[in-house]
Design brief:
It is built from 11 helices and 19 strands. With 462 residues, the protein is an alpha/beta fold. The longest helix is centred in the last third of the chain and has 18 residues.
Amino acid sequence: MTRASSRSPVYSPPFLDVISIGFGPANIALAVAFEELTKDLHVQFLEKRSAPGWQEGMLLENSDIQNHPLRDLVTPRNPRSRYTFTNFLFENDRLFEHLNLGLAYPLRIEYEQYVRWVAGFFAHQVQYGVEVSAIEPVIGRGTNMPEGYVVRDKSGREWHARSVVVAPGRTPNVPVVFNGLDSERIVHLCDYLFALDRVRQRKCNPRIAVVGGSQSAVEILLHAHDLGVCEKVVGITRNFGIRQKDTSPFSDEVYFPQFVQTFYFGNDKTKQRLRAELELTNYSSADKDVVDALYVKLYAERILRRNTLAVYRNTEVESVNADERGIHLGLHETITGGRTSESFDLVVLATGFLDIGQGAKREPYPGLLNGISSLLDLGRGYLKVSIDYRVQLAGQSEHAAPIYLNGLCESSHGMGDSGSFSLLSLRSAAIVQSLAEQLARIPSRNTRAQDPDHDLVSGAAG
């Protein structure tokens, strides 16, 4: 245990009510909820980027957001808010032009502007350029529960708070065969546009491979091919073909608030069945418009006897090697058993993200919680989260300083936590209301800033 005297004082004023890590859409919606639903809470957001933004590496000019524009950062909770997408269009003098487009879903480039517009109203609560490296508990003498948290960034700065909200985004899923390899030329889809710029500076006519069969995979294939500068663009999928997304209105009820309750209180067997049945509403599939566009382009390639675009189906990547000449993929065609090797200048992994849980594409808890891992309730082998998105601690006490996950709870709360905007506003309300109730039970720590009977404990209690 590190005695308080070794860090004098333990609490550096101000001792904040809430530290919230990340300032993407989830926490921007949270900032709006704090403003509209609470008062007198001292909240600070920490964001590793230098400015607000959203999916900068995937801001493809012709791509849309795939959800109804009114499922924005606030409308489902408060349609009268000034922070609605509709008001954004109005205040930017684009409302009638947008309505005249006839688009079912807004362009991603416009929704990114909306996200930045809302973020701008909360600039006074955000510190940008802060990459958080650790969250550590403050343990009161004679207890084994945190009475607050210390948040540290990579430069050594500290923030102290009575509670923490974690919303850093989901961990990219990197298939084992690609682990530890060239991060400049093998990138997750989040970094696609940045990596594309780098490779084009080195080579005028690059060869690009996109691994995966998701919406993002198809969008990247179309974008890279339409640039007209690539020697070849190849999609690689284990499936028989690019599967079409399930857009039935019945299936889309997974993005209703009622489904959160249905899913959360279902047993493990029910949750597994629902996730398997509903996978194509969001994963390993793409919307009809982009599937059709890709198929037409592949057909045009045959007509013109060109070889600049291809999709390798029923194909797995068995090996990867990198040298100065490129990224060399060993490919296995699973139906015929054939094996080939092909080289590329850039490989984009459209392979999804990790979720909380056990097994493939799972992690027991977000890496940012490593510093409090010994306090977590990991009885099932992975993190347990309450219906109000509060992280459950082992031996939970109502007086323990609360910590929340904002946007990382698909395994417990269902598809609405998959990264969609659909439930951001309602989830934010649940977190804010729970936080207000929890903090009301815990006395403010500012009056105890010099109390020698409290210790800072890194990674363990006691």
